[in-house]
C-alpha cells in the first residue's frame, strides 16, 4: 500500500514538473518600435518587418522562431511569380492581410502593424497609402535576381 502511494506521488510530481517546464519555455517576444517617416520604406521595413522576415527578407528574423508558421521569404516573391514582382498583391497584403487562416501572427492580420500604419499620421488615407507604397517598393528591392 505504501509503495503504491509513493509511486503515485512520484508520478504526480513528475507530471507536474513536466507541465511546469513546458510553461517555463513558452516565451513571448516583445518588439519595440517607433514612428517612422512615411517616405522611407527601408526604415519602415527595418522597424516593422525585419523582426520576423529578417533584414535580408529571407524570413529568419530574430522573432521568427516564436511564430506559429515561418515567415514568408520575401526575396523570392518575383521568382515565384514568373519573374515579376507582385506589387498589387503585396500592397493588398500590407493593407488588408493575408489569405492564410494559419498566418504566422495567429490571425490573418498582415502585417501585425496594419492598424499602426494607418494611425501613425492620424489615419490619413493618403499617408497610409504612401507608407504601404514605399514599403512595397522597398520589399521589391530585396528580390533575388
What does this structure look like?
The chain has a single domain (30-141), classed as Orthogonal Bundle (Cytochrome Bc1 Complex, Chain D, domain 2), CATH 1.10.760. With 145 residues, it is mainly α. It is built from five helices and no strands. 19% of the residues are buried. The model is unreliable at 9-13 (pLDDT under 50).
Write the layout of secondary structure elements.
Layout: H1 2-25, H2 41-53, H3 87-96, H4 114-119, H5 125-141
Helix pairs in contact: 2-5, 3-5
Per DSSP, the total helix count is 5
Overall geometry comes to: globular
What count of domains describes the coordinates? 1
Annotated CATH architecture: Orthogonal Bundle
Q: What helical percentage do the residues reach? A: 40-55%
Backbone structural class:
mainly alpha
User: Uncertain regions: pLDDT < 50 for 5+ in a row?
Assistant: 9-13
Beginning-to-end CA distance, first to last residue: 73 Å
Mean pLDDT: 75
User: What is the gyration radius calculated from CA atoms?
Assistant: 21 Å
Q: What is the chain-wise order of helices and strands?
A: HHHHH
CATH class: Mainly Alpha
The multimeric state of the shown protein is single chain
Approximate strand percentage: under 5%
What's the number of extended β-strand segments?
0
Largest beta-sheet characterization: none
CATH topology: Cytochrome Bc1 Complex, Chain D, domain 2
Give me some keywords for this one.
single chain; 145 residues; mainly alpha; Cytochrome Bc1 Complex, Chain D, domain 2; globular
Give a short summary of the structure.
This protein has helices spanning 2-25, 41-53, 87-96, 114-119, 125-141.
